[in-house]
């Protein structure tokens, strides 16, 4: 969490893997996400709203929760450590 003018806010870190197996990574501050929920709350924004804003073409209904296997954090770390390309996209 980052401290902002109005208190703490979340900095959401997103790792997204496409069907072409391209891994996209980014981060977005809570204040940048338009939401029906109140910003600055201890629980943060609904993750569904964050994902819909960051990756609007994503079909949220296709997502499933990860298993609670110890391998999940290991797999996420491997994805995160893959080579980085500089793709910038800004929302206005």
Written account of the structure:
20% of the residues lie in helices and 22% in strands. The radius of gyration is 14 Å and the shape is globular. β3 and β4 form a beta hairpin. A two-stranded antiparallel ribbon has the order 1-2. The protein has a two-stranded antiparallel sheet with strand order 3-4. It has one domain. It starts with a strand and ends in a 12-residue tail after the last helix. With 92 residues, it is an alpha+beta fold. It is built from two helices and four strands; from the N terminus they run ββββαα.
Number of strands: 4
Strand order of the largest sheet: 1-2
Strand residue content: 15-25%
Rg of Cα set: 14 Å
Low-pLDDT residue spans: 1-5
In whole angstroms, how far apart are the ends? Answer: 23 Å
Summarize the amount of helix as a percent range: 10-25%
Average pLDDT, all residues: 77
- What is the element string, with H for helices and E for strands? EEEEHH
Which overall shape is indicated by the principal axes computed on the Cα atoms? globular
GO biological process, one term: regulation of small GTPase mediated signal transduction
GO molecular function, one term: GTPase activator activity
InterPro entries: Rap/Ran-GAP_sf (IPR035974), Rap1_Ran_GAP (IPR050989)
């Amino acid at each position: 969490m980052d401290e902002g003018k109005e208190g703490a806010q979340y900095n959401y870190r997103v790792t997204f893997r496409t069907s072409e197996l391209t891994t996209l990574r980014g981060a977005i501050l809570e204040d940048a996400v338009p939401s029906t929920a109140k910003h600055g709350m201890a629980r943060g924004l609904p993750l569904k709203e964050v994902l819909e804003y960051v990756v609007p073409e994503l079909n949220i209904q296709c997502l499933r929760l990860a298993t609670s296997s110890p391998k999940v954090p290991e797999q996420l770390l491997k994805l995160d450590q893959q080579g980085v390309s500089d793709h910038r996209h800004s929302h206005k």
